[in-house]
């Protein structure tokens, strides 16, 4: 049953990076809860436009595999910092 209320509703609206091999692999925004899954609207790396919605487990969201942000600006800043750390920032 889909729910946007209850204890987990504080996740809805947060931005997220998911990591693989220590690097940001997916960027997106939490758009809903469908217990036991968290629904994440993924975003394009090219222009930031919404792409697919993926269902992630709560265990993944709360693991070291993910970082949560309150705003899109915070998420973008974190991405920029990672790119700079790896010599990949041209901005």
Q: Note the gap between the termini.
A: 43 Å
Q: What class would the helix/strand composition place it in?
A: alpha+beta
CATH topology: SH3 type barrels
Q: Write the H/E string, N to C.
A: EEEEEHEH
Q: Which residues form runs of ≥5 with pLDDT under 50?
A: 1-7
Structural features, described:
This protein is α+β, with helices and mostly antiparallel strands. The chain has one domain: Roll (SH3 type barrels), CATH 2.30.30. It has two helices and six strands. Strands 1, 2, 3, 4, 5 and 6 form a six-stranded antiparallel sheet that branches. Strand 2 (15-20) and strand 3 form a beta hairpin. The radius of gyration is 13 Å and the shape is globular. The chain starts with a strand and ends in a 6-residue tail after the last helix.
